[in-house]
Design brief:
The protein is an alpha+beta fold. It is built from eleven helices and four strands, in the order ααβαβααβαβααααα. A four-stranded antiparallel sheet has the order 2-3-1-4.
Length: about 300
C-alpha cells in the first residue's frame, strides 16, 4: 500500500471519530475508567511498597561498648561498623546521652535516678545507634558487630524485619491480584464497547468487503480510530490521576508526625513519576484501543 493510501485511511479513521461521536465517546469513557482503575491500584501498590521499605529506618541496632572504652577504641569500632555493607548510618550515643534516654524511658523512676545517680554517667557505656539498608539481613549485621573487640552487646528486633518481610509479600500478592482482576474486567468492558461500536457499522464494513476492499484496508481506519480514542483516554486519565494524587499527597504530608510514625514519609511525590505515568497511560490506552477495534472487526470482515 502506498504512503498516500495509508494517509488517506488514517484520515478516515480520525474522521470516523467525529462521524460516530456517540460510540467514540462511549469507548473513551470505558477506556478512561479502566485506565484509572488499573492506574490507581498500581500507584497504591507502589506507594505501599515504598512505605514498607521506609519502615526499615525504624529498625535499629542498639550497640553498647565496653565500660571504660578508650577514645581510640571507640573510633575504631565506629570505623569498623561503618565498613559493614548493610549499615546505612551510625550515630554515636555518649554515656551521658544514654543516661538521659534511660531516664526518659522510665519517668516513674526519675526520683531514684536523681537521688542515687544524679548526673553521674560514668557507669554507663558509650554506644551507637545504627540503621540498616536491608532489615532482612539485620541478624547477620548484628552478629558481625558483636564480634568486634570493643563491643559489649548489640541488640535488634528481628521480629520487626520478619513482619516487614511478610507484610511486603502479602501487599504484593493482594495488589497483584487486584491489578490482574481490574485488568480482566477492563478488557471485558473495552471489548464489549468496541464490539458495539463496530457492530453499529457492520453494513459499512460489509459493503467495503463486497466492493473488493482488503482486510487491511478495512481495519486500518478502525485501528487509527481506536488508537486515537485510547490516546485521549490516556491523557484524560493522566490529568485526573495528577489532580487526585496531588490532593491526597498534600493531605497526607500535612500530618507530619503521623507520617513519620507509620513510614509515610516515603510516599512518592507525583513529580518524580509524572513522566512515567503519562507514558504508561498513553501507550496502554492507545494499544488497547487499537487492538480492541481491530479484533472486533474480524467477525464482520468474514462475509
Amino acid at each position: 500500500m502506498k504512503l498516500s493510501g495509508i494517509k488517506y485511511l488514517a484520515d478516515q479513521g480520525v474522521e470516523n471519530i467525529w462521524k460516530n461521536k456517540m460510540m467514540a465517546f462511549a469507548t473513551f469513557c470505558v477506556l478512561l475508567i479502566s485506565l484509572l482503575l488499573v492506574g490507581t491500584a498500581t500507584l497504591l501498590y507502589i506507594n505501599m511498597n515504598s512505605m514498607i521499605l521506609g519502615l526499615n529506618d525504624k529498625n535499629e541496632i542498639a550497640v553498647h561498648l565496653k565500660v571504660g572504652a578508650e577514645e581510640e577504641e571507640i573510633k575504631q569500632a565506629e570505623k569498623d561498623i561503618k565498613a559493614l555493607p548493610n549499615v546505612k548510618s551510625v550515630e554515636f550515643v555518649s554515656k551521658e546521652e544514654e543516661l538521659k534516654r534511660q531516664k526518659d524511658r522510665v519517668p516513674s523512676a526519675e526520683p531514684i535516678f536523681n537521688n542515687y545517680i544524679g548526673n553521674d554517667a560514668s557507669f554507663m557505656p558509650d554506644g551507637f545507634s545504627i540503621t540498616v539498608n536491608d532489615s532482612e539481613a539485620i541478624d547477620d549485621t548484628t552478629n558481625a558487630i558483636l564480634a568486634m573487640p570493643a563491643v559489649l552487646n548489640a541488640t535488634s528486633a528481628p521480629q520487626v524485619a520478619d513482619f516487614l518481610k511478610e507484610l511486603r509479600g502479602v501487599v504484593t500478592l493482594v495488589a497483584g491480584a487486584i491489578v490482574i482482576a481490574l485488568s480482566i474486567v477492563s478488557m471485558i468492558m473495552i471489548s464489549n464497547t468496541t464490539k458495539a461500536s463496530v457492530f453499529a457499522r457492520r453494513e459499512e464494513i460489509q459493503i467495503m468487503k463486497y466492493v473488493g476492499a482488503t482486510n487491511a484496508f478495512i481495519r486500518l481506519p478502525f485501528f487509527v480510530e481506536g488508537m486515537v480514542t485510547g490516546l485521549f483516554a490516556g491523557v484524560g486519565s493522566f490529568f485526573i490521576t495528577w489532580v487526585a494524587y496531588q490532593s491526597v499527597y498534600k493531605i497526607m504530608t500535612a500530618q507530619e508526625s503521623l507520617m513519620n510514625a507509620f513510614g509515610m514519609g516515603h510516599l512518592i511525590p507525583f513529580n518524580s513519576i509524572r513522566l512515567w505515568v503519562l507514558i504508561a497511560y498513553i501507550v496502554i490506552g492507545s494499544f488497547i484501543g487499537a487492538l480492541g477495534s481491530v479484533i472486533s472487526t474480524r467477525r464482520h470482515i468474514d462475509v
